[in-house]
Amino acid sequence: MPDRSQYYTLGAFLLGVVLTSAWTQQWSSSPSRKSRNRQRPNVKDHEGSAEHDGIKEGIEGCIGNTPLIKIKSLSEATGCEILAKAEFLNGAGNSPKDRVALSIIQMAEADGLLTPHSGDTVYEGTVGSTGISLAAICRARGYKAHICMPDDMAIEKSDLLLKLGAEVERVRPAPIVDQKQFVNLARSRALEHTADPNKRGSGLFADQFETEANWKAHYAGTGPEIYDQTDGNLDAFVSGAGTGGTISGVALFLKEKLPGLKVVLADPPGSGLYNRVKFGVMFNTKEKEGTRRRHQVDTIVEGIGINRVTQNFEVGRELIDDAVKVTDDQAIKMARWLVEHDGIFCGSSSAVNCVAATTLAKQLGPGHRIVTLLCDSGARHLSKFWANKEVGGSEDDVSLESVLQP
Ligand SMILES: Cc1ncc(COP(=O)(O)O)c(C=O)c1O
């Protein structure tokens, strides 16, 4: 008999290969195996998981991609579609400043200016929102935060900063020429830290008013998101400006794609930006000697309005087509309107944005689509803007005409 043992061995080997491959395929595609993969990912799975399974890489992963909400009451009343980017849903500090704070920290890390857990500390002068975002992201990435802010801002903002473990200095509002002005103070505190041999790490001045990390965060994030969410179908973008990073970054991105888009500044009382846009001059009548009240910008509104030229506003200024002045009274009434009609409980700058967006809708006439921002929640403004006796709780409906009445 011929020796066939080598054929038997080869046949057995091939059968083994076929069975093993069939088994592996069945095993890896079974639902139980898939869920086991999710629970115990290897490094490659883990990196991909953020995208594929909706898992976010830490709190930083919850920044950006905010929803665009149709404000139904204002849309119905004007015949325009008034859409608001829900920036209060950014997941770290709950405002558009999350994007900026992350951008500043990432740029500093890339430049080797920050090392986690080394004692490195981020210093910033802010009316609150940027500080809250920085404080949260610093915690997440192993840094400390030191925030200088005017002492007339709502107390809940500094309370929140303290709970996040930031060091907080509340200082009297002062003009920018004063070295104790909150932004100047933050800058000098950062320098003092770096020079102090008894302190661990270095001080980094975040510099939100001047750094390009600010407008670039909106150029790379907020702008493209608005474009995608509307399929590029929008007529106007309306925003207030504090540093100017939001309006400049969004305008720079959107106007490249949509040259016919109208970009409109919403400006609160006491701010010089309205005149800067309309006439090229930074001036506010409240600036006249002896007429200014205590606030740095003479308004109950927090976060927007300014009386000096900043790099972040200037970089997009030429792209701003128009400006709308909004009074404190209009903002307060709009905030109440949004609660009563839409269940939206927003802060003061968001209310200013909505007044300006609605005013613009009335000017443009029905059929237009206008995008604005809801920056932060009313919860950040309970002790000041929302403490005003005219706001909230009432069953009496205000008419939109009375909201818009200057
Ligand atoms: C609540 C709120 N809304 C709007 C803004 C203005 O944004 P920007 O600084 O990009 O002009 C700020 C700025 O701090 C803010 O705190």
TrEMBL record:
<feature type="region of interest" description="Disordered">
    <location>
        <begin position="28"/>
        <end position="51"/>
    </location>
</feature>
<feature type="domain" description="Tryptophan synthase beta chain-like PALP">
    <location>
        <begin position="60"/>
        <end position="376"/>
    </location>
</feature>
<keyword id="KW-0472">Membrane</keyword>
<keyword id="KW-0808">Transferase</keyword>
<keyword id="KW-0812">Transmembrane</keyword>
<keyword id="KW-1000">Mitochondrion outer membrane</keyword>
<keyword id="KW-0663">Pyridoxal phosphate</keyword>
<dbReference type="InterPro" id="IPR001216">
    <property type="entry name" value="P-phosphate_BS"/>
</dbReference>
<dbReference type="Pfam" id="PF00291">
    <property type="entry name" value="PALP"/>
</dbReference>
<dbReference type="GO" id="GO:0004124">
    <property type="term" value="F:cysteine synthase activity"/>
</dbReference>
<keyword id="KW-0496">Mitochondrion</keyword>
<keyword id="KW-1133">Transmembrane helix</keyword>
<dbReference type="GO" id="GO:0006535">
    <property type="term" value="P:cysteine biosynthetic process from serine"/>
</dbReference>
<feature type="compositionally biased region" description="Basic and acidic residues">
    <location>
        <begin position="42"/>
        <end position="51"/>
    </location>
</feature>
<dbReference type="InterPro" id="IPR050214">
    <property type="entry name" value="Cys_Synth/Cystath_Beta-Synth"/>
</dbReference>
<dbReference type="GO" id="GO:0005741">
    <property type="term" value="C:mitochondrial outer membrane"/>
</dbReference>
<dbReference type="InterPro" id="IPR036052">
    <property type="entry name" value="TrpB-like_PALP_sf"/>
</dbReference>
<protein>
    <recommendedName>
        <fullName>Cysteine synthase 2</fullName>
        <ecNumber>2.5.1.47</ecNumber>
    </recommendedName>
</protein>
<comment type="similarity">
    <text>Belongs to the cysteine synthase/cystathionine beta-synthase family.</text>
</comment>
<dbReference type="InterPro" id="IPR001926">
    <property type="entry name" value="TrpB-like_PALP"/>
</dbReference>
